[in-house]
Amino acid sequence: MRSTHESSPREGGYQDAFVPNQDHPGANPNHNGLLPSHNEKAHHADSTLFRIDTAGESGRSGIHPLLFLKVCFRSTCTLSMLVNVLWPFVPPAIVLHFARPDLHVWVFALNYIAMVPSANLLGFAGGELAKKLPKVLGVLLETTLSSVVEIVLFMVLIKNDSFVVIQAAILGSILANLLLCLGLCFFLGGFGREEQVFHEAVSEVGSGLLLVAGFGLLIPSAFNAAVLSKATAPLPEALLNEYTLTISRATAVLLLVAFLMYLFYNLHSHHSIFDEVLEKDEHRDEDREEEKRRAKLTLVECFIAIAVSLAFVCMSAVFLVQEIEHIVERGVPDNFMGLILVPLVEKAAEHLTAIDEAWDNQINFALFHCLGPSIQTALLNAPLVVIVGWGLGKDMGLNFEIFMIVTVVLSILVVGNFLRDGKSNYLEGGLCVLIYVIIAVTTWYYPEVHEAGHAPAHGSAAHGS
């Protein structure tokens, strides 16, 4: 939940060090809670990294252990606080990995559960830090923190040559954000409201970038499938795999360029537009007064909470990935594991944050937290894992299963159509969630790669799981 400024003491832990005195010409001594003028916003954006008079101020500095634990446990909403009751699963999950590594199902299950409260704390701490930063930078920082978890998962998977699971997890992450998370935001945010209205700058840029990302991810798979289907003079399989891998690597580099353009657009050339949109959203927060009174973390406590949660969530992620092979052997399809199970738990923090924002009528913030992670996965994480694999001499490519990449592209088109009119309601949200459930059920019965007759771009005969 987000809210605008509050009349609280300045947080000496960071403001005195980084922010000029509030008497400087750019400050507004008669700040009355109304939207600041464009010139004021521009001045603050240029003069300081941290925001003044925001809901992120704690009125404290340093660290206060008991209050720190209390604030982290209470989090920002009831749903997030309920998730924190899962923290007792975290120590046993870590201990069991070292004490009884032979109990594969138990290690997997405990670490799967343990990732949820750890990711929840990471999302909360990232949100607390984001409220001390310019709005767009803060939202992008929250998204990037969750991307760290995904990147760690991908790096462990690529070390284990689990290419099939990586490819499924890339697409599954996009599907979870676009269909499940955005669908729940529209569905729950639409209760008690005829519709929710969001700004076209957020929806158009997001849906446009996702279309470009979907096109880029589709091209290597389409090339491979088209050449395989040629009735005359087909390429030898080894040569086809080599060409597909080369196209994948070139595409990965270009998608990274697109991501840099996206960052420049959001943080530099058009940041004032998004800042204004998000600031108006803060004023629409239905829990604004309650959020003002809520105890906040100091800057130091934010960094501590982020470090602790990152350590726990990365350990659980590594332990979880190491058990995937044994879980697949017990009958769970590796495509289902990557497309559904892994993205659900690694995206838990983002989903809780976005759903809470939609419930409080901050639909533009919710869109940022749904579309932003999908864009980062498609334009940053997926190309990054291909390039890292390239550097390690592993044939990791973007030759996805046609069924999976088609479901992602169709999902992007469906969501883009819902975003086109700048309005959402519970019907559109419910339909998105139903589409996600249909994909999940179908994925469970989808045959393994070697059974489907698919020629993998990575050139490995095994699943990689």
UniProtKB/TrEMBL annotation:
GO terms for cellular component: endomembrane system; fungal-type vacuole membrane. InterPro entries: CaH_exchang, CAX-like, NaCa_Exmemb, NCX_ion-bd_dom_sf. Keywords: Antiport, Calcium, Calcium transport, Ion transport, Membrane, Transmembrane, Transmembrane helix, Transport, Vacuole. Belongs to the Ca(2+):cation antiporter (CaCA) (TC 2.A.19) family. Residues 1-38 are annotated as: Disordered. It comes from the Eukaryota. It is a multi-pass membrane protein. The chain crosses the membrane at residues 79-99, 105-124, 136-158, 164-189, 201-223, 243-265, 297-321, 400-419, 426-446. One of its GO terms (molecular function) is calcium:proton antiporter activity. It is found in: Endomembrane system; Vacuole membrane. This is Vacuolar calcium ion transporter. It comes from Aspergillus candidus. Residues 104-266, 303-444 form the Sodium/calcium exchanger membrane region domain. GO terms for biological process: intracellular calcium ion homeostasis. It holds the Pfam family Na_Ca_ex. Has a role in promoting intracellular calcium ion sequestration via the exchange of calcium ions for hydrogen ions across the vacuolar membrane. Involved also in manganese ion homeostasis via its uptake into the vacuole. Its main location: membrane.
